[in-house]
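Q: Structure tokens for this one, please.
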Amino acid sequence: MRWLFILLFFCCATVKAQVISGKVVSDSTNAPVAARLFTHSGYQTATDAAGSFNLQVKGAGDTIKVFAIGYQTLIFPVKAPLSRYIVLRVKTASVKLKEVTVKAERNHQKDSIDRRAEYSKVFNYQPPKLKDAFVAPPSNVPFTFVSIDLLRVISALTRNSDPKYKMQKVLLRDEQGDYIATRFNRGLVSRVTGLKGDSLQTYMDKYYPKIDWVKKASDYDILLYIKEKASDFRKGN
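A: Here is the predicted structure, written as tokens:
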């Protein structure tokens, strides 16, 4: 009964999340920006067409990370007292920097290698699995049964709240987003399609490619994709 109580306690004793509402806007134009938001505590959401969002946080001490194509990543620490409505201003990324990044794939690879070296313990972290809790009996002991390690059961069931596991997922998302930005970004899309301003941002949001496809696609495939989607975009508008 004691172990059952401990198991229930760890599974249920989570800090109640709070919801923060707000808006992501361009720091230079004050226009709404389509963005993805992640918290260090593991919550995530995306803005709507007006740049508005509702996001769960664990309270003061949590951190909000804002990703928007064509803009610098914004890190916003949640402080007490909590504000129920916040405006997050993102700064436009340098177009020249984006163009250089597209051509210089080595820079991305070096950044990825450096990041993985710096956070090697996080990238190499293996979260506990439920099957690891079942311990086989010694082969030389007759009439024994498989035993269960309750501490490992607890760790496996609550791994989604493990800070190292959450950090690993955030770093992997960052790495994938950085790689996509080297192949599909505002500077390249604008040059190929001629789109600018709000139309360009709407196109980027609507046709943002998946990481698995980008890894397999050649430069020609990506240019063809941009042109084909530009044709669809103009027909729809």
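A few notes: The chain has a mean pLDDT of 75. The beta strands are 18-26, 36-39, 44-46, 52-57, 63-67, 74-77, 85-90, 134-135, 147-148.
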